[in-house]
Design goal:
This protein is 54% helix and 14% strand. The protein is built from ten helices and five strands; from the N terminus they run ααααααβββαααββα. The radius of gyration is 34 Å and the shape is rod-shaped. It has a five-stranded mixed sheet with strand order 1-2-3-4-5.
Amino acid sequence: MICPNCEKETLNELYCEHCGKNFHNINLQSNEKKDPPFNAHLLNWKYYIGVIIFAIIGVLGDKLQASNGIVILTAIIMTVTYKAKFSGRFAMLFFSAIIAGMIFILTVFLTSYFKSFNDNQNEAKIQKFLSSYKNYPIHLNNEIELAAFTSDSPNTMTQHLRFLNYTKEQLTSTHKAGLEQYVKFLSYSGFTGICKEKELKELFENGLTVYQRYYDYNNQFLQETFVNEKKCVKYLEE
């Protein structure tokens, strides 16, 4: 065998004849149970993928408070999978929670920044589009007028449509198939035109939803319907 101390060949299994190194102590040390590499486990990026995903979903879905539990869950998983002594596992729980928390906060900050930037861009485009609609109300035909075209978020626009000659009771009694079906029939041509607007194409791709809210002659709310990118595909195919 080769002596690990002087790297010379020796026939004695207990000690080296050349340097006197005791092999018995070396064997005892090599047989001792050691904790797995702490830093390698702590910095294993695979454990933190869930933190990043939940942080992004929390920001985009406005459910950030429900997502922050992933930090503690990640720390617990990393501690359970770290096969070490109690002190080592406690240290893993503490430091992994800190790192997971920092990653969560950083991801939230970056996602919020880019979301805010994108929202501002969408809002500017929506306001530019709405600026072409002036002098309300706008008569669309002999029965309906566009009372207003508004936006209350970077991803929504709402057309407020009013019947000129009918109350809710009259409309309900006239259209036996149901007021909801009648509104869907009326909205078809309007949504088809909206889906063809070149200025809205990119906004639809970014998640724009356009609503139509119908009111009767007395401004009593009747029905609401909407169109988004998915529905636009259907409207344009027909």
